[in-house]
Design goal:
about 350 residues; alpha/beta; Udp-n-acetylmuramoylalanyl-d-glutamate--2,6- Diaminopimelate Ligase, Chain: A, domain 1; UDP N-Acetylglucosamine Acyltransferase, domain 1; ten-stranded parallel beta sheet; flat; lipid metabolism; acyltransferase; N-acyltransferase activity
Length: about 350
């Protein structure tokens, strides 16, 4: 089904030539043909664009009513009559760009809502949008094109680069954000980290958390995820990194560019991740570890030792993938033998 116009503005109709250009693909046919939106193979209509990136759905391609399909060259001949094949080496990426052509991200509507609270000395770009009941702390800086949603809070001294977006009820303190950073609803950035010192009497005294959070350009933080500020140094995520919903990042974590952390995963304090590390859902990394660039941490893995670059690990405690599956195979064989002799 097409995107619901109540929630998603649409720029259509769009010319086939422009759709193909957005996809980075080639086509044969009338470049002036018009399309109104995008949809899945199964339900897209003649004026909609779909895509195929997984051969599991090849049967749907043969039956699709879509007017155009973004796909790879080796399946282009399978499109039905009347459907245009838009051929690209990266169909999923190409379709993402086509979808963004029809449904671009919201842009700021400059202005400050009368219920918003703007602190003393705060510098808000006249090109920014400040929503209902939002709070901008003293001395904060809000860049051009930023969108601050309802009830969002920007703490004192926080700096937001251009085109950042804070969704409803997100909050950020003690932080510097680059361009195009997105905090989804309920995200928390810059709060006090989990640090304390035990006393001889068995009590705990909070260790002052005196660092910041630094988020590079185009970092996205999912709904209800938390990034603690550093204790003495800074907590850092590099350009283009993405955190899913319900992710916990401890103080002083330093992650490079393009890191991916999937839902319910957690990284303990002072762990260091190289560029393009990927963490599966519910995985955990212990504190003070080094995770090399390009490493991949499987879902529910418990990482308790350093992981070399470009290494895949899984299990708890985490092992390299091949060793893990060899061990599992051995356990199954052992279990089978015991079952026969028992």
């Amino acid at each position: 089904m097409a995107a619901d116009s109540r929630f998603f503005a649409c720029t259509g109709p769009q010319r086939l030539a422009d759709v193909a250009a957005a996809a980075g693909g080639s086509f044969t046919g009338d470049g002036e043909r018009r399309f109104t939106g995008v949809g899945p193979l199964r339900s897209a209509g003649p004026d909609e664009v779909s895509f195929l990136d997984n051969r599991r759905y090849a049967a749907q391609l043969a039956e699709t009513k879509a007017g155009a399909v973004v796909l790879m060259a080796d399946v282009a001949a399978q499109v039905p009559s009347g459907t245009v094949a838009i051929v690209t080496a990266t169909p999923y990426l190409g379709f993402a760009r086509v979808a963004a052509l029809f449904h671009p991200a919201p842009v700021a509507r400059p202005g400050i809502h009368p219920t918003a609270v703007i602190g003393a000395g705060a510098r808000v770009s006249p090109e920014a949008e400040i929503g209902p009941y939002a709070v901008i702390g003293d001395g904060a800086e809000i860049g051009a094109g930023c969108i601050i949603g309802p009830h969002a809070v920007v703490g004192p001294g926080v700096v937001l680069g251009p085109r950042c977006r804070l969704h409803a009820h997100a909050s950020v303190s003690h932080a510097m954000l680059g361009a195009g950073v997105v905090l989804h609803p309920g995200a928390r950035v810059g709060q006090e980290g989990f640090g304390f010192a035990p006393t001889p009497t068995g009590d705990f005294e909070t260790m002052p958390q005196l660092g910041r959070v630094l988020l590079g350009d185009r970092v996205e933080v999912g709904a209800n995820s938390c990034i603690d500020r550093g204790s003495q140094g800074d907590t850092v995520f590099g350009r283009g990194s993405r955190l899913d919903n319900l992710v916990q990042i401890g103080h002083n974590v330093r992650a490079g560019r393009g890191c991916i952390v999937v839902g319910q995963a957690g990284i303990s304090g002072s762990a260091v991740l190289g560029d393009y590390v990927q963490m599966g859902a519910q995985a955990g990394i212990a504190g003070h570890l080094q995770i090399g660039a390009g490493a991949r941490i499987g879902a529910q893995a418990g990482v308790m030792n350093d992981v070399p670059a470009k290494t895949d690990v899984i299990g708890s405690p985490a092992w390299p993938v091949r060793e893990f599956w060899r061990a599992i195979a051995g356990l199954r064989r052992l279990g089978g033998k015991q079952g026969k002799t028992g």
